[in-house]
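Private note to self, pasted from the team thread so I don't lose it. Backbone tokens:
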């Protein structure tokens, strides 16, 4: 039976590193929701048409190419516009994931990586197991700045929008989360922590590495 393992975490937490560790150990059926949304914008004209109709403003240039800056400018500081876009995009994302899952249903475990899965109502009840990757806020900030080469104040502004992730980093609990992996040390330490959590959740989880994923 296939299970969906959701890996989530705030900016700079290291959720992508956890996913890479899982992949190195054989869990190759992975779906990066944040990256896939960008692909859908670029590859689905119907999706963009629905967004433009909903927002009553363009998100494409005169040649029909998606322009992220147009969308960002429209939804910036406008929660209603953001919610309207998400009401269109997230159902499309879930349909795409269902198609992905059908292709990999023999894999045993499919990894679903997303930064926003706990914060958006469209994902309510999604996933069989949810793992939060976490680290102190200051450390997450340092990592994100180093990774993106971005200004600290700009990264802070992005982090402030992840209110739930920040609350979880400060010790707030969430009953939807099955396990927390603290990523505040070396990659070797993180590998050990991933192994322990996966063993607690799935038992002999490496047995799924024998599956020949397509």
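Design output:
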């Amino acid at each position: 039976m296939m299970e969906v393992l959701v890996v989530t975490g705030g900016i700079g937490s290291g959720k992508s590193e956890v996913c890479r560790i899982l992949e190195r150990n054989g869990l190759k059926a992975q779906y990066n929701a944040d990256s896939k949304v960008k692909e859908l914008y670029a590859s689905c004209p119907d999706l963009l048409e629905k967004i433009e109709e909903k927002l009553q403003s363009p998100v494409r240039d005169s040649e029909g190419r998606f322009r992220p800056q147009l969308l960002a400018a429209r939804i910036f500081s406008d929660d209603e516009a953001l919610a309207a876009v998400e009401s269109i995009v997230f159902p499309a994302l879930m349909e795409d994931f269902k198609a992905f899952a059908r292709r990999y249903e023999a894999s045993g475990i499919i990894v679903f990586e997303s930064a926003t899965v706990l914060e958006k109502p469209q994902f309510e009840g999604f996933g069989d197991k949810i793992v939060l990757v976490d680290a102190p806020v200051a450390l997450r900030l340092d990592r994100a700045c180093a990774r993106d080469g971005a200004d600290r104040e700009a990264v802070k502004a992005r982090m402030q929008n992840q209110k739930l992730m920040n609350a979880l980093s400060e010790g707030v609990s969430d009953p939807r989360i099955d396990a927390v992996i603290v990523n505040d040390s070396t990659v070797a330490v993180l590998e050990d922590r991933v192994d322990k959590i996966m063993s607690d959740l799935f038992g002999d989880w490496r047995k799924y590495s024998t599956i020949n994923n397509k």
